[in-house]
Design brief:
Shape: elongated
InterPro entries: Beta-lactam/transpept, Beta-lactam/transpept-like, PBP_dimer, PBP_dimer_sf, PCN-bd_Tpept
Membrane topology: Single-pass membrane protein
Radius of gyration: 39 Å
CATH architecture of one domain: 3-Layer(aba) Sandwich
Strand content: 15-25%
CATH superfamily of one domain: DD-peptidase/beta-lactamase superfamily
Largest sheet: 7 strands, mixed
Catalytic activity: Preferential cleavage: (Ac)2-L-Lys-D-Ala-|-D-Ala. Also transpeptidation of peptidyl-alanyl moieties that are N-acyl substituents of D-alanine
CATH topology of one domain: Beta-lactamase
Oligomer: single chain
Helix content: 25-40%
CATH class of one domain: Alpha Beta
Main location: membrane
Keywords: Cell membrane, Cell shape, Cell wall biogenesis/degradation, Membrane, Peptidoglycan synthesis, Plasmid, Transmembrane, Transmembrane helix
Distance between the termini: 140 Å
Length: about 700
């Protein structure tokens, strides 16, 4: 049989083609093997490092704030541990965060009060993106593009149109669960990468805490932990001066606190003591380092530092004394409120200082106000009014006037003036409260509270001369400047330097007319705070040293036993702000005048203090003023009122306590109650009673 040559030729071509294919396959495998060898041998270590690459992120955990004690170690402000749920974003996208928020919302109840209408619109657009995009037509998009703007600006303008066109009906589609998801998502979205955010730290139930803990593997970034909340041992006592704590750093101070390693949602002192001593109370947060892979998954956690609770502070306040003073204030304020013409009376203040060290032994303020819920009148704490509100104090400041007369040389020790009303042309007579004093010296002028003695001193300071029924001509600019500068040396009209924020300096009358100068020296023109007149009388009591008031006595380490004081870190030393330049006999005369006010039969406060066993000295004050309180809007013209004050110290020879009492807007009309006397006597009585009791114990 003959074989066809064409067939043979075809068969011989098939093996050849297969060989070519096999050869090509061989070459490709060789190249692949060579390439794999290169990757493994030459670049293997590099790729291995890239696969095993991790990232370290340090997260700070909250620690308890420092506690606040009174001077005797009695706890005033403490911390209560509470369950908390947190979130840390390790690089999750918005859609991933939203999924976690949706899961978490099924496990916890979330407050939605802070969800705004804008938040709702943003959320609705996110959930209904295609419907939202249809709200902006193609023509509108083209018109926006035609403005030759950036892509970012185009997107912003388009999104703004979407926001404007989300209807109330569409927002009503969001149910309670949606709003809870939104509230959680809003918190997630507000933080920086790898910063721990507080999702919920108030009212976290045991069930919520357990459910979240059990499902942490399904909630990337979510964790359960312990947080702390401030607790107060006393309901209303000192509440306004202790201050408040913010849940989160204020926006206006964000850069300041972030530079000091705060987290955005850290608790920060917002007012008064909590604010003033934030750097002491805040503590050193615990730091934990999370080690993640390049996808953001946490591989392990390492403790960098355990953290340390904030340091404790000890106040100069004696809480037993403080509570007793507040009780007196409340009782006398309610009692005075029952007197006629007291419709505008609503507050009173007491400050007690150690005149030598400036320690604030008690600072109390009470205000009668209407409860917003019940509509009933109740007594509220108004302690911050001792440094933040000012009033004309009346004759209490006359000690400063007498000493200013000495310092300027217009009066000498034993200078006498005839006390008869001044009759200035076109002005009602200006006199003392009685026209029977005759000629008197500075000691008796203080004892009986002569206005005329002070008027004539002021006229002399201004190089003026008084002639009956003639205009009063003098250099009022000079006199105002000299008198006010002298008063500031006692703390009147200037900051006392107390270690609290928001201290006011009072109001200086703007006009420098002769009549107003006469009002100034009897305490009826410029206004002062209760703390200022307390510093003023303390300066007279201690021999002429203006000492800075302070409310913090010590800073101490915290202890494991929350009820005990730790070792002292810093003891705050007294600070003398200035010493008044006085010659022998000047201050002694004023001190004697103050003693006679309370102990001489003719003294203005003798009927209430002459039998006091602790030998007090002081000065009373009644000022004609205009009401400028919370009810001012009810009146077309500010009503005329009487402010009552009292400054005192005891014992008069070796004073250990200085006191200021202020009762603003005490009554209307010329005659009324003497709540300043009643409060002052009862406060000094209780101070010396408690001192005796504590010594005996």
């Amino acid at each position: 049989m003959k074989v066809n040559s064409k067939t043979k030729k075809k068969k011989t071509h098939v093996p050849f083609r297969l060989n070519v294919v096999f050869f090509l396959v061989f070459l490709l495998f060789s190249v692949l093997i060579l390439r794999l060898g290169m990757v493994q041998i030459v670049y293997g270590d590099d790729y291995k490092r890239e696969i095993e690459r991790t990232e370290d992120y340090t997260i700070s955990n909250p620690v308890p704030r420092g506690k606040i004690f009174d001077r005797n170690g009695r706890i005033i402000v403490d911390n209560v541990a509470q369950n908390a749920i947190t979130y840390t974003n390790h690089g999750a996208s918005q859609s991933e965060m939203l999924k976690v928020a949706e899961k978490l919302a099924f496990l916890i109840e979330m407050d939605t009060d802070k969800v705004t209408e804008r938040d709702k619109k943003d959320y609705w657009i996110m959930k209904n993106l295609s419907k939202a995009q249809k709200k902006v037509s193609k023509e509108e998009r083209e018109r926006i593009k035609s403005k030759d703007i950036t892509v970012k600006e185009f997107n912003r303008q388009t999104y703004d149109l979407m926001l404007q066109r989300v209807t109330d009906t569409e927002l009503k589609e969001l149910n309670k669960h949606d709003l809870e998801v939104l509230a959680i998502y809003k918190i997630f979205n507000n933080g920086y990468a790898h910063s721990r955010l507080m999702v919920k730290n108030k009212g976290v139930t045991r069930e919520e805490y357990a459910k979240v803990s059990e499902n942490l593997q399904l909630l990337p970034g979510v964790d359960t932990t312990t947080d702390w909340e401030r607790s107060y041992a006393f309901d209303k006592t000192l509440k306004t001066i202790l201050g408040k704590v913010n849940d989160g750093v204020p926006r206006e101070q964000l850069d300041y606190f972030m530079a000091r390693e705060y987290s955005q949602n850290d608790r920060v002192g917002r007012s008064y003591i909590e604010y003033q001593y934030e750097n002491v109370l805040h503590g050193q947060k615990a730091k934990v380092k999370n080690i993640t892979d390049k996808k953001g998954n946490v591989l392990r956690t390492e403790v960098v530092s355990e953290g340390k609770s904030g340091k404790d502070i000890v106040l100069t306040i004696d809480m037993e004394l403080q509570l007793a003073v507040e009780k007196i204030l409340e009782q006398e304020l309610w009692k005075a409120k029952k007197q006629p013409n007291t419709e505008l009376l609503d507050r009173a203040y007491v400050v007690l200082l150690n005149p030598h060290t400036g320690e604030v032994l008690s600072m109390a303020g009470k205000q009668i106000a209407r409860d917003e819920k019940t509509g009933k009148l109740e007594m509220q704490d108004h302690t911050y009014g001792t440094i933040s509100s000012s009033y004309s104090m009346g004759s209490s400041v006359k000690g400063a006037t007498i000493l200013t007369g000495y310092k300027t040389g217009v009066n000498q020790v034993g200078t006498y003036y005839l006390d008869i009303p001044l009759k200035i042309k076109d002005t009602p007579p200006k006199g003392s409260w009685s026209n029977k004093f005759g000629t008197l010296n500075e000691i008796r002028a203080l004892r009986v509270s002569s206005n005329v003695y002070m008027f004539k001193t002021a006229i002399a300071i201004g190089n003026g001369e008084y002639e009956p029924n003639q205009p009063l001509r003098m250099d009022t600019n000079k006199a105002f400047d000299v008198i006010r500068q002298s008063f500031t040396e006692f703390g009147l009209g200037t900051r006392t330097g107390i270690d609290l924020p928001n201290e006011q300096i009072g109001f200086r009358g703007p006009q420098k007319l002769p009549g107003f100068l006469l009002d100034l020296v009897i305490g009826q023109y410029d206004t002062y705070t209760p703390m200022q007149i307390a510093q003023y009388v303390a300066t007279i009591a201690n021999g002429g040293y203006r000492v800075q008031p302070r409310i913090v006595k010590e800073i101490r380490e915290t202890t494991i036993d929350d009820t005990r004081l730790g070792p002292i870190i810093q003891e705050i030393e007294p600070t003398v702000l200035n010493r008044i330049d006085l010659k022998p006999g000047w201050l002694e005369n004023v001190q004697e005048g103050f003693r006679q006010v309370m102990q001489h039969p003719e003294g203005t406060a003798a009927r209430r203090f002459k039998d006091a066993p602790y030998s007090p000295a002081g000065k009373t004050g009644t000022a004609e003023a205009f009401y400028d309180g919370p009810e001012r809007r009810k009146y077309q013209k500010a009503p005329e009122v009487m402010n009552l004050s009292l400054v005192a110290y005891a014992p008069h020879k070796n004073p250990e306590v200085a006191m200021a009492v202020v009762v603003p807007w005490a009554y209307q009309g010329k005659k009324g109650h003497t709540a300043n006397y009643e409060i002052g006597r009862n406060v000094l009585d209780v101070y010396f009673k408690l001192k005796k009791t504590n010594v005996n114990h």
